[in-house]
Write a structure and sequence with these properties.
This protein is of the alpha/beta class and 446 residues long. Among the domains are: 2-188, Rossmann fold (3-Layer(aba) Sandwich); 341-445, GMP Synthetase, Chain A, domain 3, CATH 3.30.300.30. The chain is built from 12 helices and 25 strands. It has a 7-stranded mixed sheet. A 5-stranded mixed sheet has the order 6-4-5-8-9, sandwiched between helices. Strands 17-18-19-20 form a 4-stranded antiparallel sheet. The longest helix is centred in the first third of the chain and has 16 residues, at 17-32.
């Protein structure tokens, strides 16, 4: 498979796609000299990562991508690899990245479409779960993204707040713009103020007028509280979100503040992209064109997808309802269905009902499993309050405040499944990938 030669410009490095491509080829020659076939790659710098990632593929090597650079995570993933490359502060490597390492040979990058990229995601046992993708599957997905959304992006500059180490960031932040010829800034903008400064500078210095933002629900939920990007809303051509559903109120506020609603992408490391939606148009999900969907007897969403290794139908952990329009709505995660004394309930549904109260901005509901033989399991909730909620909890005290929330929930649920314990945080803890740190929340009830 030939990677196309295009006119990309890397704004973070102030250099052209041609220089990047020459760096890839030069580093690939070094990897080709090494006998090791499988390489663990971690580098927090997206530009260095991009050169090493493509160099490994050009050298016909297999790539392993850990979720993060924590020592335990790297040690677990290194068991599957022959060598490491990337950030030398973490582990030693036989192939170092160098900005000065280039070649004079400009040609399309030749990559075996069957090359394996192994991702790691959190497994049900707590140990990292390995998921293999071929390079062809990744390219197929970015081709679908460009066909679906490219016409509205108007040669914009891609900017991102997410990491390239997981599949959403790799596809949207890196592979899509590089393949389709968009300019890209591979710097990660953790704070909206930094992104605003970059947009202002890029507009003033380079005349760049259009931007596409790749981000997460956690980022958007924080952004709407004080949206510093609103003054440059006319510069956005697209906003994408993945990693979890965007709250309806946040989608509504973003539509008002930025004059557009983010395009949410439903999917996972295992499945790739399944469907998309813009809540300003519909709360239902529309499957991408290559994806076929159906339900099983327990309302699990089942998909047939070219991004999944299994040739047959793949059963997801999402419960759904199919609509006559061909779209579908989500009913919550199947693994979030629990039993309390034989009463089945959905933790996601309880969470949604809590968020409907004007005092609550965000919520995570969890099951506290008792270790005592004669004591039943309990449901608990961690809340982030709205300004009105902050006032109410101060005036009422936490006991009366929680009793009021319980009264609200009695309209929907039996008393047995209403949360018995509440904890309050200024914000829910999310990691760099926009994933909720659930273990951290569980510790609040120890």
């Amino acid at each position: 498979m030939k990677w196309p030669i295009n006119n990309n410009f890397f704004y973070c490095e102030q250099q052209s796609f041609v220089i990047w491509q020459q760096q890839v080829i030069a580093h690939a020659e070094l990897f080709a000299e090494q006998p090791a076939q499988t390489w663990l790659l971690f580098d927090a710098d997206s530009y260095r990562f991009s050169v090493l990632f493509f160099a490994l593929l050009v050298a016909k090597k297999s790539v392993i991508l850990p979720q993060n650079g924590q020592p335990e995570q790297l040690a677990q993933c290194l068991e599957y690899a022959d060598e490491f490359t990337g950030d030398t502060d973490l582990l030693p490597t036989k192939v170092l990245f160098s900005h000065d390492l280039t070649c004079n040979n400009l040609q399309a990058l030749d990559i075996d479409e069957h090359s394996i990229i192994r991702f790691f995601t959190s497994g049900s046992t707590g140990a990292p779960k390995a998921i293999d993708k071929t390079f062809k599957q990744l390219v197929q997905e970015i081709q679908v993204l460009e066909a679906q959304f490219g016409a509205n992006l108007n040669s914009s500059l891609f900017v991102a707040t997410v990491s390239h180490q997981h599949i959403y960031g790799l596809l949207f932040k890196l592979l899509w713009p590089l393949y389709s010829g968009y300019d890209v800034c591979l710097q990660s903008f953790e704070y909206p103020e930094h992104l605003l400064h970059f947009i202002d500078n890029s507009t003033a210095q380079a005349g760049k007028a259009g931007f596409t933002l790749i981000s997460s629900p956690a980022y958007y939920h924080r952004l709407v509280q004080d949206n510093v990007l609103a003054p440059v809303k006319n510069k956005f051509r697209g906003c994408f979100s993945s990693g979890g559903p965007l709250q309806a109120i946040a989608a509504k506020l973003l539509t008002e503040q930025l004059a557009m609603s983010p395009i949410e992408v439903l999917g996972s490391t295992e499945t790739g992209g399944i469907a998309w939606r813009q809540q300003s148009h519909s709360s239902s999900w529309q499957a991408f064109k290559p994806i076929k969907i159906k339900l099983d007897d327990t309302q699990h969403l089942i998909i047939s997808s070219p991004y999944v290794v299994e040739a047959n139908w793949y059963r997801t952990d999402d419960r759904a309802q199919l609509l006559e329009s061909g779209q579908f709505t989500l009913l919550g995660r199947a693994d979030r269905i629990v039993k309390i004394e034989e009463k089945r309930c959905s933790l996601d549904e309880i969470s949604q009902r809590i968020i409907e109260h004007s005092w609550v901005d965000e919520c995570y509901v969890l099951l506290l499993e008792s270790q005592q033989q004669h004591k039943r399991n309990e449901i608990a909730a961690v809340l982030v309050l709205t300004p009105a909620g902050e006032i109410a909890v101060t005036e009422l005290g936490k006991f009366k405040f929680s009793q009021t929330l319980k009264s609200h929930l009695k309209a929907f649920f039996e008393p047995l499944v209403i949360p018995r314990k509440f904890r309050y945080l200024p914000a829910l803890p999310y990691n760099r990938q926009g994933k909720l740190e659930k273990a951290q929340l569980e510790k609040m009830f120890d």
